[in-house]
Write a structure and sequence with these properties.
Blueprint: H1 11-30, E1 37-45, H2 49-60, E2 64-66, E3 69-76, E4 86-90, E5 93-97, H3 106-119, E6 124-129, H4 141-150, E7 154-156, E8 173-175, H5 183-193, E9 198-204, H6 208-220, E10 227-234, H7 244-256, E11 261-265, H8 268-281, E12 289-292, E13 307-311, H9 316-337, H10 339-344, H11 365-377, E14 381-384, E15 387-391, E16 397-398, E17 401-408, E18 423-431, E19 441-444, E20 458-467, E21 474-481, E22 494-499, E23 504-508, E24 528-529, E25 541-545, E26 550-556, E27 563-569, E28 592-593, E29 596-597
Parallel strand pairs: 1-3, 1-6, 6-7, 7-8, 9-10, 9-11, 11-12, 12-13
Antiparallel strand pairs: 2-3, 4-5, 13-17, 14-15, 15-16, 17-18, 18-19, 20-21, 22-26, 23-25, 24-25, 26-27, 28-29
Length: 598
């Protein structure tokens, strides 16, 4: 059967033709045993017509038999403006091909889902959903909320926001793509391999993903030794009207600090503003390092040397194929487990239906929809179009393959020039840990990484290339590239003084006695005889200074060693008492170094 694109002139004729064909095919189909076929309806709201058609073809290829009954699937999409319905019968599979893409408006998208539920005749069991066209960052929230209300499983093929892992709000959602926050685990691996210990995070302060990412990084600190020295939150909702002066004011502390590694987790458009400000401040050049999220890779001014992670299989067409397989295998699996129930189970008739628990729970959709969803999350196959397909308890994809990528100058340009567009090359791989697997698989080629400013440094490796013939001691090791350090210590001398007024205490000197002239600093006994004698009584005194005149704090930070000491200089003064007494005698001083007097 060849379907031609209808026009306004021949549309009525085509409608008649399709109705006739449908009646003919229906006659042939009813000549067999109708009771031997069981049908399930699956909806699809995707970002393009080619994805819709591919989904329909994917459903057509799936056949199964349970208890001598043939399982069939109906691929249902929202009715288009032309109301064109092409009904084909292939191996008792009924395919309704009404191509219409997912609407960007939440209310319209909800109406699309409700129209499919009504057309499903209470046998609508799941929906495969993507994002609206040209809006990859717009999640199908309304679809998930409505579907969760009625217990309909939703399989996302491009939704990567962390909010969908929350089973309280999205109880029936699962996806063939991992959430963006999974990048935190890969970032922690990179931090460990590069031996970085300090970093700064610039993130969106108004979405759930950033909070989840920071929480993952904090959890990673239990196994990887690093600290977050600074966290800068930005409002990415205003990415079209960003005040660059305000943004620069937020980012300027990075320039004055010592940390040289920056983690960026914002949207693509906001990342362009961050890179513009960073270029002005000179923090994207030599001795700096940037790790950016996958969303930022689409920025037009992506700086050379930036590192990122990218889902290796992100083609929506391939994920639609795997989603069709997940939903059909899940239904078939649960039908084999509960054949009598699934043969006659009714889901939802329409969106106005109020779901109440009936007396007979054996036929209750409210009772079995969670079990059907659980059966879908238990689906595992190794030969998927996007690789190993498996889900965790939250319905998130596990075992996904990531590419670790690096922004590098184009090989044809030689020296980087403004006119040469950078290229994104793969420098490593990361495979998520599967269920039951403790560790992920991770590999990276550090020598292939282009660092900002073409930074190059080498350090000895663990590989010995030359040994002493007598002692077998390694005297030469192979050199390997060294990433930029995560921090750069300042080299200037800082002196801080706190002034105070000196005073002395005194004790009467016994007649014929002596003052304590002990030189033991620990005793703090620096009694000094005063040369003045009281003219009236003839008595003399011993004086003891008890407060320093000046308090010095000196910190020295050379790049090769950190030295800080506290130097307390105390001038002990004995002031001549009495009439005409004057003069100052400097007695001694003491230095306090790392908790000890020297």
């Amino acid at each position: 059967l060849q379907v031609v694109s209808p026009s306004a002139s021949n549309f009525p004729m085509l409608r008649v033709l399709f109705v006739v064909l449908y009646l003919v095919l229906l006659t042939f189909s009813t000549s067999g045993d109708i009771s031997s076929s069981v049908n399930f309806t699956i909806g699809a709201l995707l970002s393009g017509t080619k994805f819709m058609k591919h989904f329909n073809l994917s459903i057509c290829d799936i056949r199964a038999h349970v208890n001598e009954k043939q399982i069939s699937f109906t691929a249902l999409t929202e009715v288009s403006d032309l109301h064109l319905m092409c009904m084909l019968l292939i191996y008792t599979f009924t395919i309704y091909m009404d191509i219409k893409i997912l609407a960007s408006n939440a209310l319209t998208a909800t109406k699309q889902l409700c129209s499919m539920i009504s057309a499903g005749n209470a046998r609508f069991f799941a929906v495969v959903v993507s994002n609206p066209p040209n809006s990859p960052s717009t999640p199908p929230l309304s679809i998930s909320y409505v579907a969760a209300l009625y217990g309909l499983p939703v399989i996302g093929v491009s939704t990567r926001q962390a909010a969908f892992s929350n089973k309280y709000a999205h109880a029936s959602f699962l996806r063939t793509v991992p959430p963006y926050v999974e990048e935190a685990k890969i970032w922690a691996q990179l931090i460990s391999v590069f031996e970085w210990h300090e970093m700064i995070i610039i993130h969106s302060d108004n979405n759930h993903d950033s909070k989840a990412l920071i929480a993952r990084l904090e959890a990673a600190r239990q196994t990887v030794d690093f600290k977050i020295t600074q966290t800068i939150g930005v409002n990415t909702d205003e990415e079209d009207v960003v005040n660059l002066k305000e943004l620069q004011h937020k980012v300027e502390p990075i320039q004055r600090g010592q940390t040289r590694v920056i983690l960026l987790f914002v949207t693509r458009r906001y990342a362009e503003h961050v890179f513009t400000v960073a270029d002005r401040l000179g923090i994207i050049g030599k001795e700096w390092a940037w790790i950016v999220s996958e969303q930022c890779l689409g920025a037009k001014n992506l700086p050379l040397g930036a590192l990122s992670v990218r889902l290796a299989q992100s083609d929506e067409l391939r994920h639609v194929e795997d989603a069709a397989r997940v939903v059909t295998e899940g239904i078939i699996k649960f039908t084999r487990r509960e054949p009598k129930i699934m043969f006659g189970l009714q889901s939802v008739h329409h969106c106005r239906q109020e779901l109440e628990s009936p007396r007979n729970l054996s036929q209750s959709w409210l009772y079995y929809n969670t079990k059907l969803y659980q059966a879908m999350t238990e689906v595992i196959f190794e030969d998927g179009e996007t690789g190993h397909v498996e889900f965790d308890s939250h319905g998130d994809r596990v075992g996904a393959l990531y590419d670790i990528v690096n922004v590098q100058p184009h090989s044809d340009c030689g020296v980087p020039k403004p006119s040469c567009k950078p290229v994104i090359n793969t420098v490593g791989k990361y495979v998520q840990a599967k269920r039951g697997s403790k560790k992920p698989r991770f590999s990276i080629e550090i020598d292939r990484i282009y660092w900002p400013g073409n930074y190059r440094a080498m350090k000895p490796s663990d590989i010995c290339t030359k040994r002493n013939s007598r002692t077998n001691e390694c005297i030469e090791r192979a050199m390997r590239p060294r990433p930029p350090p995560s921090s750069k210590k300042k080299t200037h001398l800082k002196v801080v003084t706190i002034q105070s007024t000196p005073f002395v205490d005194y004790v009467p000197k016994p007649s014929g006695g002596q003052c304590n002239t002990s030189d033991r600093v620990e005793d703090l006994k620096f009694q000094v005889p005063c040369t003045h004698t009281n003219a009236t009584t003839g008595a003399s005194a011993c004086y003891l200074p008890v407060l320093s005149t000046t308090f010095f704090v000196i910190s020295i930070h050379p790049p090769f060693i950190i030295l800080s000491f506290l130097l307390c200089c105390s001038c002990r003064l004995c002031m001549l008492l009495g009439k005409g007494g004057k003069g100052v005698r400097v007695l001694d001083y003491m230095c306090y170094f790392h908790g000890k007097y020297v």
